[in-house]
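Exercise 3.2. Students should predict the tertiary structure of the chain below and write it as structure tokens, then compare their answer with the key that follows.

Predict this chain's 3D structure.
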Amino acid sequence: MEQQRREYGLFTTIAMIVGIVIGSGIFFKSDDMLGYTNGNVGLAVLVFCIAAFTIVFGCLSFSQLAALTDKPGGVITYANEFVGKRCASMFGWFQVFIYYPTLTVLISWVVGIYVGLTMGWELTFVGMVGVGLVWFFICFLYNILSAKIGGIFQEASVIIKLIPLFAIAIGGLIFGDPIAAIQNPSPEAIQATKTLGWAAAIGPIAFSFDGWVVSTAVAHEVRNSKKNVPKALVLAPLFVLAAYLMYFLGITGYLGVDQVMEMGDTAVAVAATNLLGPTFAGIIYVFVTISVMGTVNGVILGYIRLPYSLALRNAIPFSNSLKKINPRLNMPVNSAFFAIAVCGVWWVIHYLQNKYSLLINGDIAEIAIAVSYLLYIILYYQVFRLWREGRVKSIWYGVVFPVFATLGSLFVLFGGLSNPQFIIFVIICMIAIAGGFFYGKNAYTDVQ
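Answer key:
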């Protein structure tokens, strides 16, 4: 069977997680978080920590599975190895047909938003989609042509994206008053604590934190993966939490809650202009745009390998074609084109969703993320089972962390339920999951 060479090291794996998680959500979801909490900064910070709690303990749990296998497929492999082939097929179909393409399409569109803001273009929604599509195809192209190019861009974009994040975070913390923003909430902000409406903020925050699981899709291409992938899964989310809290407190403390909510996606530009002047603010905006581009790169880097991983198990139509590795490019090219085709369907859905406002204060990716956390609970239980069998030695990793990860996943799902259209998109997700379950009866039980 054709195998891929191991191109990536520990830093690239950490960069992949940090680079996907940081780079889009925090810059254009901060106002959404404040909107759901009626401008209550302290409550938003609490929900931030709950989301981070979910991610950190999820990573700690998955790190135990990553230490036991490095076969292609990430969570698909974990489901196959520790649950069964039908469960693996369910995970795979959900990720291939729902999770990855919705993330790819949404964040590519966000690239269009920030390119327009950076260049001073007054783009319509269609214009943003057009720019996003251009980057979408460019990113797929160079990732297909060279795994190294995708990895190098991921490492470089991580460094670049941290510059605006920490520039605004540190400047806002020094010259702003985040303590006052927390201690002096408005009457509306106080009222938000008396209902559970704030739980809906978990949607945009979960989006801001999501992406860490993408790194598991390329575990089979990481050198010494049974040590490096678990390390990356533990270190990266802790770094992200610290960076996010600094940025959120910095920008709200500096601009004020009302301004952040009113300015929306442009708040980062205003903060940068006030702190650094118009010239440096322009540079910061370029960095933010590159940051979001790096997020798209990281998602695509993981996505193009997933149809290939399913095909190795005969768990997807056209498996014989999708599992082929191009010997010259060391890349599953047919798998990449399959991913592009699936994304094409979601580009149309994304356009229709925005044109007809099918989701209120939400987007297609947020619901896919909520459903994904529901599926992760299956794997958290497997970590507990492995502890009972003695394969996971520590009670912290085998019991405490999976329990906390499960509680966090249920909270993310609860937040998703706050959207009135949630059930419609969940049905779409379940169709894909059901397709994987039934197709999985033909899957192979093992992949070398």
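Discussion points: The domain at 10-442 is CATH 1.20.1740.10 (Amino acid/polyamine transporter I). The longest helix spans residues 85-119.
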